[in-house]
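Example 3.2
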Amino acid sequence: MNRQVFLIAGKELKGLARQNSLKILLAIIIILLGFALYAGHVAYKQQGTMVETAHKDRRAEWLDQGNKHPHIAAHYGTYVFKPKTLLSLFDFGLDTYTGTSIYLEAHHPHEFMFRPVQGYGNMIRFGELSAALVLQLLVPLLIIFITFQTFTKEKETGTLKLLVSQGVSIRSIYLGKVLAYSVIVFAIMVPFFTGLYIVGVVEKTSSVLSDLGVRILLLFFVYVGYLWAFTNFSVWISLKSSNARNALLTLLIFWITTGIIIPKTSANLGETLHPLPSMKIYKEAIQRDITNGMKPNDTKQKRLERLKELYLKKYGVDSLNQLPLNFEGIQMQEGEEYANKVYDFHGAALYKKFELQNRAGSLMSFVAPYIALRNLSMAFAATDWYSFNDFQEKTNTYRRHLIRTMNNDMAKNSRYGEFYEYKAGKNLWETISDFKYLTPKVTIIFKYYLMELASLSLWILTILILIPSSSKNKLK
């Protein structure tokens, strides 16, 4: 950059500092950011405390359930709670929709419960006020209002012609103005993300997020990149517009279209192209395959008969009573394993539909960069669908281990036909370790968002191409 760029940037900042309207808008944005961050922190602390308390209570209930048959303990079950990550106070993501706890018991993989969205009513359609939402939609709106007349006003007053006639290139003027507005963006972003990191250090959330610093740094870069591109685009529109009214109208239409209309449309498009089955149909299909089998003529009864023949032949006995194991435990575990296979099959098909819906939205990010920013923000904050799915898979693994342990103990330590006579105790319950969850590292999540990264990079590259060259000193 030459000296002219810095001089123009300084002049632009001085002019902005004299505008009371800008001061008011900037104050509103900072207040909203502060309020959103404070409200998010309060919610994070409250939910974190509730989750921790509930987790300890349920663990104590499991350990202190008394002596009982292992299969009854498997039905008694326990609860697992999704821990809050610190960055969820910045970007709520899907946490409001995915639920906070799940009940684990034999035979029935339950759904997540207590979704906060269920108590919000219709207002949730307009989104929640989070710090991420302020940066994604309201800061670009601020940029629009402070940049839409940056060139048009110069044209109307004749200042632009005077500068060009004195040998100042359009490129230098353009870069000077972009630099000035970028300083304002940095003045908002740097203190905010520094404060977010300090809160993370104070809260000591490494037990859930092991790479908090990296995630905050990635969030900072992706937001700065997006807002820098938006600033450049707004200044370019002002340069190409004949008057301030046209510039403002063009920018507002772009903001509404890419920030509100296209994201809503892409979500509806994904649901239309790849519809999900109703919960009733989904569950009926699973139960039908468990009972009748996924293969023709592979019914539950036939699977049981084959299992009996296998164990009688294996141990060379004539009846189930002669087996050195309790066949009821073997049977129950075999039923669990087959049900797991059925649930995995149908779950994979459902997962594929969700992926296709997400991909439809990701493709639209090439038209609306806001979508790319929103998805990357949720990913880096660990509040996206893939992060939740990782938690769901690990709770499912934990549940299967719990049920398998109970059934295996029943098979090894009790006799066939004696159900209530055998009771296990705390020694068995303690073999089920406490559930601990660590969010996957952000490098693992990256692979799911290559399209968003490509989209945002393409937008930034396009903006760089739009920057006037040094030779374009003439005004149109």
